[in-house]
TrEMBL record:
Its EC number is 2.7.13.3. It comes from Inconstantimicrobium porci. SUPFAM superfamilies: ATPase domain of HSP90 chaperone/DNA topoisomerase II/histidine kinase, Homodimeric domain of signal transducing histidine kinase, PYP-like sensor domain (PAS domain). Keywords: ATP-binding, Kinase, Membrane, Nucleotide-binding, Phosphoprotein, Transferase, Transmembrane, Transmembrane helix, Two-component regulatory system. It comes from the Bacteria. This is histidine kinase. It catalyses: ATP + protein L-histidine = ADP + protein N-phospho-L-histidine. Gene3D superfamilies: 1.10.287.130, Histidine kinase-like ATPase, C-terminal domain, PAS domain. One of its GO terms (molecular function) is phosphorelay sensor kinase activity. The chain crosses the membrane at residues 7-27, 39-60, 67-89, 109-125, 137-158, 170-190, 199-217. It is an enzyme of class 2 (transferase). The keyword Chloroplast does not apply. InterPro entries: HATPase_C_sf, HATPase_dom, His_kinase_dom, HisK_dim/P_dom, HisK_dim/P_sf, PAS, PAS-like_dom_sf, PAS_4. Residues 539-759 form the Histidine kinase domain.
């Protein structure tokens, strides 16, 4: 820049000398003639027009409002000098537009003051971003030219007023103010030059320097002689010419700079071609888009892999940005951070693919707009692999964190290199407390060598080892648990890292095995006991039946005797006979219970009229009921119903229930036997109901248990062994039926039997009705042997 300034100074010196010589040759420095004035005005008009164009051009380049104000100055000057030139031609032909007094017609004081004010005002608003279109600038320049013509007439009219009023001091003071304004403008221009270093601004400074000299000459002209006016005009010509030289120098410098930039552009273009070739052949996806995400460039990889070959397809492409909602958000982050990296998902023709995308902003220095370079790297395989590994690791962690087994990784020497959370939870402490500790540190002493041998065997033979041992949970209380451990060798990359040992707490299983063994022994003992008991009851029943039969024979013989001793023995026969029946009943019940338990009691199924069978049994028992002052009633809803059953067992069931009802119903009570049919279930429903003492609610389930009695006291009013109802339930269930009890204390009891009608048909051996004789009389005597008159 200093070399350019020196060149300008040299050229200005040469130009000043040439200008002075030309002015002297033309006589512009002598007393003004019409010809000289025309030459002067023509020169000023041409130069002011050229400088105006130069300032407009420089403004369009720099967008500096002060330069535009200087262009306005020279546009006004062009209009002013054009009007002055026209007026000079008119005066030459005696047709002057303005006829002013001699000595005042060349003054431009008012117009120069107005121009100076415009320039100073523009400098105040210099920092505002005022952008004016070229067409608008041309309109402004033309308007300023007309305004200059107007100022020409204003100057002459104002000077005429001063001349008439003889106030010649006013122009002097105004000239002094104008010089002061020009000094201020020169200061701002020089300051701008120091800041920008522009050659053209430097020539404008020189121009204002000559303008100030011209104004000083005009000021001296008013004090001394008129020739100073013409000298000022010469300096005006120089001041107008200097910017033309400056714009030419600026142009030359710009041409040189342009050539340098062209060379740089060529170098850059070669580099760009290399980069372009790389981008065209690279496998990564590259796109250049504008701020609205419209594509400006897509490399072949982008088009090929995503199957997009035009802008329309690109606009239809859907990106799913992780952590960001839109392109705009991504672009804003890229501008703010000078680049941004995001994860994105693209749905291409082959399915969903994952990419790492980097976005970098590129700002256009001329337009200020941003474009964005998008670099996409296919990470689908890596992401899927990573997800698989993460899921596998998560599954492994979930398993190891939640499994109750004690899992440890051991090195060759048996020291822990990893332990699961269940291990630290079981034995307390932190994870790091066990790293490097031998696994046998909490093994019972008598199992230590066993565990060491198992670990060494696994490491040596590369085979899985399973065994059991005891581990100490609490060293203070020496509390132990049983564990079953599995030692497996590590394979692959971890071959030299030892083994995996998984131990499971089997303490409960051990206790369960011990308890099972104990219970099994108890069960075996119970079975042996029941077997002995059953054999005992069976043997004692048979052994008791023989002497009872002998006693019965003796009683029958005594009953047949009809001698003098009959009355003496007769009073003992009946109680003796009744107690023999009681013993026989007990023996029969024990035998039947034993047969039922051993599975040897078989039913003799035939087809019977159940209504007639139960009615006959009920009528046979009426004397026993009446003997106790009870009312026994039989009621049926069916006159006849054939059922497949064992009549002997049904008789024993009914007689047992009637015997209980008679025993536990007080005098004056009532017993009702009813038969009905349940058509839905195809059952015969037999009910034996009394209004006796009843059974407590907590004893209802127990009355059907063997050897259970409601009244267990020694002073109970009725006799019984406690196996009658148990036998009844077993006989009913042998018929595939059910029995239930409804009872309330003080209100009586009701036994309800449900016998199936056809369920036992397949066991029937005789479908005819068997005619029963008096055998049931003996059965009644046996079943009612507990009832005393």
């Amino acid at each position: 820049m200093k070399k350019g300034t020196a060149l300008i100074n040299f050229m200005l010196a040469i130009f000043t000398i040439i200008t002075l010589l030309v002015c002297r040759r033309l006589g512009l420095g002598s007393i003004a003639t019409q010809t000289n004035v025309i030459y002067l005005y023509s020169s000023l008009l041409i130069l002011s027009s050229l400088v105006c164009l130069a300032n407009v051009s420089y403004y369009l380049y720099k967008k500096d409002i002060l330069i535009l104000a200087l262009a306005v100055k020279f546009a006004i000057s062009s209009g002013l000098w054009f009007t002055a030139l026209v007026n000079s031609f008119s005066r030459r032909n005696s047709l002057a537009i303005v006829a002013a007094n001699r000595g005042f017609s060349e003054e431009t004081l008012i117009s120069n003051l107005i121009i100076a004010c415009i320039i100073l005002g523009s400098n105040i608003r210099r920092n505002s971003n005022l952008m004016i279109a070229t067409k608008r600038i041309i309109e402004i320049m033309i308007s300023c030219a007309f305004f200059g013509a107007f100022l020409y007439f204003l100057d002459y009219n104002w000077l005429e007023i001063i001349h008439v009023n003889n106030e010649l001091s006013v122009p002097f003071y105004l000239s002094f103010i104008l010089i002061l304004f020009n000094f201020i403008i020169l200061y701002f221009l020089y300051k701008d030059y120091r800041k920008s270093g522009s050659i053209y601004v430097y020539t404008i400074c020189i121009s204002y320097y000559f303008t100030i000299i011209a104004e000083i000459f005009r000021l001296n002209r008013r004090i001394f002689v008129d020739n100073f006016m013409y000298l000022s005009n010469i300096y005006d010509i120089i001041s107008y010419s200097v910017p033309v030289i400056g714009i030419c120098c600026e142009f030359i410098i710009k041409i040189k700079v342009l050539n340098m930039k062209i060379e740089e552009e060529r170098i850059y273009q070669n580099k760009l071609m290399k980069y372009y070739s790389i981008i065209e052949s690279i496998g990564n996806l590259i796109a250049i888009v504008d701020e609205n995400n419209n594509p400006e460039y897509l490399n072949p990889a982008f088009k090929r892999l995503l199957n997009f070959y035009n802008k329309k397809n690109y606009s239809e492409m859907k990106f799913d940005f992780k952590g960001s909602s839109s392109y705009k958000e991504i672009f804003d982050k890229a501008i703010k951070n000078h680049g941004v990296a995001v994860k994105t998902i693209v749905n291409d023709v082959k399915g969903k693919k994952f990419y790492d995308m980097s976005v970098y902003p590129i700002k256009n220095e001329f337009t200020g707009e941003n474009t964005f370079v998008m670099l996409l790297s296919d990470e689908t395989d890596n992401i899927l692999l990573t997800k698989h590994l993460v899921n596998s690791e998560r599954k492994f962690r979930n398993i190891t964190n939640n499994i109750s087994d004690l899992i440890c990784q051991l090195d060759k020497s048996g020291k822990i290199t990893y332990c699961s959370p269940s291990y630290t939870k079981m034995f307390g402490g932190l994870y790091q407390d066990y790293i490097g500790v031998s696994w046998i540190h909490n093994i019972r002493e008598n199992y230590i060598m066993q565990v060491i041998d198992d670990i060494n065997s696994c490491v040596k033979h590369r085979d899985t080892v399973t065994n059991q041992c005891e581990m100490i949970v609490d060293s203070l209380s020496q509390k132990c648990i049983w564990v079953e451990y599995v030692i497996s060798p590590l394979n692959g990359a971890d071959y030299n890292n030892g083994v995996i040992l998984s131990a499971r707490d089997i303490t409960r299983r051990k206790k369960a095995e011990e308890e099972k063994e104990c219970e099994s022994k108890k069960l075996q003992d119970t079975i042996e006991y029941d077997k002995v008991k059953t054999e005992f009851f069976s043997n004692i029943s048979h052994e008791l039946r023989t002497p009872i039969n002998v006693i019965f024979s003796i009683l029958q013989i005594t009953e047949l005797q009809n001698n003098s001793t009959e009355d003496y023995f007769k009073k003992y026969n009946k109680p003796l006979k009744q107690n023999c029946y009681r013993l026989l009943r007990l023996i029969n019940n024990l035998i039947d219970i034993t047969k039922i338990d051993s599975g040897f009691l078989k039913l003799t199924i035939s087809r019977y009229d159940i209504v007639s069978l139960i009615e006959n049994m009920t009528q046979s028992v009426v004397p026993y009921a009446e003997a106790k002052g009870l009312s026994l009633v039989f009621d049926t809803y069916e006159e006849e119903k054939m059922v497949y059953c064992d009549s002997d067992k049904v008789e024993r069931i009914i007689l047992n229930l009637l015997s209980n009802a008679i025993k536990f119903t007080p005098r004056g009570g009532r017993i009702i036997v009813t038969i009905s049919i349940d058509e839905e279930k195809n059952n015969v429903v037999i009910s034996v109901k009394d209004n006796g003492v009843g059974i407590p609610g907590d004893m209802i389930e127990e009355v059907f248990e063997r050897f259970r009695q409601v009244d267990k006291s020694l002073t109970r009013q009725n006799e019984g062994s406690g196996i009658g109802l148990s036998l009844v339930k077993s006989l009913v269930e042998l018929h595939k039926g059910t029995i239930e009890l409804k009872s309330k204390v003080g209100e009586g009891s009701e036994f309800i039997i449900n016998l199936p009608i056809d369920a036992n048909k397949d066991q029937c051996s005789n479908i005819n009705i068997i005619q029963r004789g008096n055998s049931n009389i003996e059965t009644i005597n046996v079943e009612f042997s507990d009832i005393y008159e």
